C-alpha cells in the first residue's frame, strides 16, 4: 500500500489564529492534496493544543471559565480550516476524551519502560515557551530569544523523562536522514544544539501551579506537561497502538511545523517514540516565520495579519496562492497588502484568469463553444509532460513555492502560445489549423486546472468543470483525451482585477 500520513503542529489556543497558522495549514493541505493527486492513500491531521499555564492564566485574565475559553478559541481555528478549504481527515483537540484516555496509556507505558522518574529541579522557566531553558540558549542579556522576556527561577518537584538515554540514538537517526529534517540548515542547527547531548526534561507540573491539564495517572497532585499531552496527538488521533488507522498510517510521512518548535519535535518527540518502541517520522518539514512589511508581527506593533479578513476580501484561493508561491516554503517570508495586490493582479487576474477567459471566449466565438474533435499536438503534450514532471519533483522535495512557480510557467506558456499562434488571424483567413490550436489550448487548460487543484482547489475545479472534466482529476488523468463535442460552460471571472488600494 502506498500511504501518506501528513500532520501539522496543533495550534495553541491562548489567542486567535493569525496568518502564520494559515501558512502551516495551507502548506500541509497542498502536500496532502498533491499526495492524493498522485494516487496515494492519504490521511491528514490538524488540531488544537488546549492545556497549559498560558491558557489558564489568559482565561482568568478575561474572566472566562477556562473550558469556555478554549472552546471559543478552538472554534476559531476550526473556522480557519473551513475558510481556507483545508482537506484534513481529522481535527483533534487535546481536551477530547479520546485523546486524554490514550495519553494516560502512553504515560503508563513510558513509566513501565523506566523512562519517567520523580525529582526536584531548580532552573530557569520561560512562561512563553512553557519550558525550562538553559542559560546558553538565552540572549546576551538573559532573554528568551523567541519571546524576548527573561525566564523566572523555579524550583519544583516534577516527573522527568529520560531524554538523555536516547540522545545518541536521536542524533544518529537525524544525521543519517532516517528522520529527514528540511531544510538542511535546520538539521545542522539541531545537531549543533545537541552536540553536548540532550538532557532529561520535565514532564509534569504540580497541580497547584497548573490546574488545567491531564492528571498524571496514580498521582493526582501532578498534571502532565505539554510534551506528553500535546506531542502525542499525532498518534492518539490514529487510536494509538490498537487503532486501525494507527496500524495503517503510522509512521508519519511528513510532519509540518514552525522553526520555533523543531527542538521539541526532533528531540523530545523522537525520544518518546523510541521509548514507546514505535517507528519514528520519516520527515519533519520546517517552515519559517511571516513578517509584515519586513517587520516581525506582534500585537503591540499592531501588524498582526488576520487571515479571515483577506479570505473575505480576496477569496480563499488568492490567499492560498500568495502563501504557497510568495512565501518561501522552508524559510521566512513577508506578507504585505501592497505585495498581495501586485501578486493578485499580475499572476491571478492577468495571468491565470486572463488565460482561461481568452481560451473559452475564442472557443465560443470560433467554434460555438464546442471542444473540437482533434488529437492534441505531440509537441504540446511533451511540453506539458515536462512541466508536470518538474512540479512533481519539486513537491516531492517539499519545495512548494518552486512547484507553484512552474505551474505559473505553464500559464505563461499558454498565454504566449495564444499570442504566437494568433487564432483570431486564423479565423479571418479560415485557416484549417484553427480547431487544432483551440483543442491544444483546451488541453493546456485541463493540465493547468488539474495542477492548480493541488494549490487552489476552488479555481482548479472551476477550470476543469468548465471544459467538461471532473472537478477533481488525478495526475494520471491529465494526459487522457479531451471531452470532444462538449460545449464549454464559461465560469464567472475567476479573479476580477483590483485597484491597488
What descriptors fit this protein?
single chain; 501 residues; alpha/beta; Isoleucyl-tRNA Synthetase, Domain 1; 7-stranded parallel sheet; 4-stranded antiparallel sheet
Mean pLDDT: 94
**Structural class of the helix and strand makeup?**
alpha/beta
Strand coverage percent: 15-25%
CATH architecture of the domain at 338-477: Orthogonal Bundle
Largest beta-sheet characterization: 7 strands, parallel
Q: How far is the N terminus from the C terminus?
A: 51 Å
Give the overall silhouette.
elongated
| Percent helix range | 40-55%
Q: Going by CATH, what is the homologous superfamily of the domain at 338-477? A: Isoleucyl-tRNA Synthetase, Domain 1
CATH topology of the domain at 338-477: Isoleucyl-tRNA Synthetase, Domain 1
Radius of gyration computed on alpha carbons = 26 Å
Low-pLDDT regions: none
Tell me the number of strands: 17
What oligomeric state do these chains adopt?
single chain
Protein described:
The strands form four sheets. Strands 1, 2, 3, 4, 8, 13 and 14 form a seven-stranded parallel beta sheet that branches. With 501 residues, this protein is an alpha/beta fold. It has helices at 19-37, 53-61, 66-83, 97-112, 167-175, 184-193, 226-230, 233-236, 244-249, 262-276, 307-314, 316-326, 337-367, 378-396, 400-421, 423-429, 434-455, 457-466; strands at 3-8, 11-12, 41-49, 90-93, 116-126, 131-133, 152-161, 180-182, 201-202, 204-206, 215-216, 219-224, 254-258, 283-287, 290-292, 295-296, 333-334. The chain is built from 18 helices and 17 strands. The protein has a domain at 338-477: Isoleucyl-tRNA Synthetase, Domain 1. The chain starts with a strand and ends in a 35-residue tail after the last helix.
Amino acid at each position: 500500500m502506498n500511504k501518506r500520513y501528513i500532520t501539522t503542529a496543533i495550534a495553541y489556543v491562548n489567542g486567535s489564529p493569525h496568518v502564520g497558522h494559515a501558512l502551516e495549514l495551507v502548506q500541509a493541505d497542498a502536500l496532502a492534496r498533491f499526495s492524493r493527486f498522485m494516487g496515494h492513500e492519504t490521511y491528514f491531521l490538524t488540531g488544537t493544543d488546549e492545556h497549559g499555564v498560558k491558557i489558564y492564566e489568559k482565561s482568568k485574565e478575561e474572566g472566562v471559565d477556562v473550558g469556555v475559553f478554549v472552546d471559543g478559541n478552538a472554534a476559531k481555528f476550526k473556522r480557519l480550516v473551513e475558510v481556507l478549504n483545508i482537506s484534513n481527515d481529522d481535527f483533534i483537540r487535546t481536551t477530547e476524551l479520546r485523546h486524554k484516555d490514550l495519553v494516560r496509556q502512553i504515560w503508563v507505558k513510558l513509566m513501565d519502560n523506566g523512562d519517567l522518574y520523580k525529582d526536584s529541579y531548580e532552573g530557569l522557566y520561560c512562561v512563553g515557551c512553557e519550558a525550562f531553558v538553559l542559560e546558553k540558549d538565552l540572549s546576551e542579556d538573559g532573554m528568551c530569544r523567541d519571546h524576548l522576556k527573561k525566564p523566572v527561577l523555579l524550583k519544583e518537584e516534577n516527573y522527568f523523562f529520560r531524554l538523555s538515554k536516547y540522545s545518541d540514538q536521536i542524533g544518529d537517526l537525524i544525521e543519517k536522514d532516517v528522520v529527514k529534517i528540511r531544510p538542511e540548515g535546520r538539521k545542522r542547527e539541531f545537531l549543533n544544539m545537541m552536540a553536548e547531548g540532550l538532557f532529561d526534561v520535565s514532564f509534569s507540573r504540580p497541580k497547584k501551579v497548573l490546574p488545567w491539564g491531564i492528571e498524571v495517572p496514580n498521582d493526582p497532585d501532578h498534571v502532565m506537561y505539554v510534551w506528553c499531552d500535546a506531542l502525542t496527538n499525532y498518534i492518539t488521533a490514529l487510536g494509538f497502538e490498537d487503532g486501525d488507522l494507527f496500524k495503517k498510517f503510522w509512521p508519519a510521512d511528513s510532519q509540518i511545523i514552525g522553526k520555533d518548535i523543531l527542538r521539541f519535535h526532533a528531540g523530545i518527540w523522537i525520544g518518546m517514540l523510541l521509548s514507546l518502541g514505535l517507528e519514528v517520522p520519516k520527515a519533519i518539514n520546517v517552515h519559517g516565520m511571516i513578517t509584515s512589511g519586513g517587520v516581525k508581527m506582534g500585537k503591540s506593533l499592531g501588524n498582526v495579519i488576520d487571515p479571515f479578513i483577506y479570505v473575505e476580501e480576496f477569496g480563499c484561493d488568492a490567499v492560498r496562492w500568495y502563501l504557497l508561491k510568495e512565501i518561501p516554503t522552508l524559510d521566512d517570508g513577508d506578507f504585505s497588502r501592497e505585495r498581495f495586490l501586485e501578486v493578485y493582479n499580475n499572476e491571478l487576474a492577468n495571468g491565470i484568469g486572463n488565460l482561461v477567459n481568452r481560451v473559452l471566449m475564442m472557443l465560443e466565438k470560433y467554434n460555438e463553444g464546442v471542444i473540437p474533435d482533434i488529437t492534441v499536438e505531440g509537441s504540446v503534450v511533451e511540453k506539458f509532460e515536462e512541466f508536470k514532471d518538474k512540479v512533481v519533483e519539486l513537491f516531492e522535495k517539499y519545495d512548494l513555492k518552486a512547484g507553484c512557480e512552474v505551474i505559473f510557467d505553464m500559464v505563461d506558456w499558454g498565454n504566449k502560445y495564444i499570442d504566437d499562434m494568433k487564432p483570431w488571424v486564423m479565423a479571418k483567413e479560415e485557416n484549417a489549423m484553427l480547431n487544432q490550436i483551440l483543442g491544444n489550448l483546451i488541453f493546456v487548460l485541463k493540465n493547468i486546472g488539474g495542477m492548480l487543484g493541488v494549490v487552489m482547489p476552488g479555481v482548479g475545479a472551476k477550470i476543469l468543470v468548465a471544459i467538461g472534466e471532473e472537478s477533481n482529476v488525478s495526475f494520471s488523468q491529465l494526459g487522457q483525451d479531451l471531452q470532444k463535442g462538449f460545449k464549454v460552460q464559461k465560469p464567472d471571472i475567476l479573479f476580477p482585477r483590483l485597484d491597488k488600494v
